[in-house]
Amino acid sequence: MDDRLNGMRVFAQVVESKSFSAAAEKLGMSKSLASRHVSALERSLSVKLLNRSTRRLGLTEGGALFYEHCARIVQEAELAEQRLALVQAEPAGLVKVTAVPAFATRHVLPALGDFHRKHPKIQVKLFCSNRTVELSDEGFDVGIRVSFAPAPHLVARKLAVNRSVLCASPAYLERHGTPRRLEDLRRHQCVLFPALAPKGVWTFRHDGRRSTVQVGGAFETDEMDAVRAAVVAGLGISPLPVYMVADALREGQLIPLLRKYRIAPESAIYLVYPPNRTLASRVRALIDFLVERFGPVPPWEAGW
């Protein structure tokens, strides 16, 4: 079985590298040894997996079918080895992380103290930016993104649903009254964030039905933290991510409105990383820590 698993590992790497030479270099063996591993695998399966020529390497029909399962088996075997290594050796070194500032400052940074106490030999370099960073090109190990759909070329693990809540300050509601129906929002001052609601159209869901309302207001911004500050200052009503306003809701700085309605569309917070076959133990340790820290029910959803 060990010989067949080695053959599967080499075969999967050949397919992904699109050549025996590149696969052999990544696996630290000679091209001829890589070729022998695949040939032995083909003999044991009695199936030709690859069409070889001097100019091109391609999968046979059987090879394509086998690769789908083979890649998963190899990945699981490597994951098991990594988890064992995590238990046997204390992870150490630098992990480079990029995250949106609003989430990083409120939730990632406070969590890193506990992470450092658990893994004192791991250093974390956190880069805060609202732009979409190309992880591999810019040398990052992990990204934390608020997104409707993560990039298909990255591995993504959902940390939490990014639920939003419609809210206003007590001072604003005292001056202008509290909206009781969606239609009431038309006569209120609303803080606008065009990136998520072009042309001031807000969308809600309730009991499986979708409703929209056209809103307006005297203040508009392209930065979500500025939306939060404007709402706290009493400039108007706006939907805001719960992870950004849970503290203000608990303290009474903000009041949730029309709570039976869900703000749509609903995004999520993802951990993303390049699809490397082998993740460094220090990177895996941070990923596992954050997944446990923020799921399955994130801490910002409680107590308001």
Count the beta strands. Answer: 15
Helix/sheet category? alpha+beta
CATH architectural group of the largest domain: 3-Layer(aba) Sandwich
For this structure, what is the CATH class of the largest domain? Alpha Beta
Percent helix, as a range, is 40-55%
Distance between the termini: 55 Å
Question: Which short descriptors sum up this protein?
Answer:
Arc Repressor Mutant, subunit A, elongated, 15 strands, 3 domains, D-Maltodextrin-Binding Protein, domain 2, 9 helices, alpha+beta, 304 residues
What is this entry, summarized?
The protein has helices spanning 2-17, 20-27, 31-45, 61-88, 101-118, 170-176, 224-232, 242-251, 281-294; strands spanning 50-52, 57-59, 93-99, 122-128, 142-147, 155-162, 164-168, 189-192, 201-206, 209-214, 216-220, 238-241, 255-256, 262-264, 267-273. It is an alpha+beta fold.
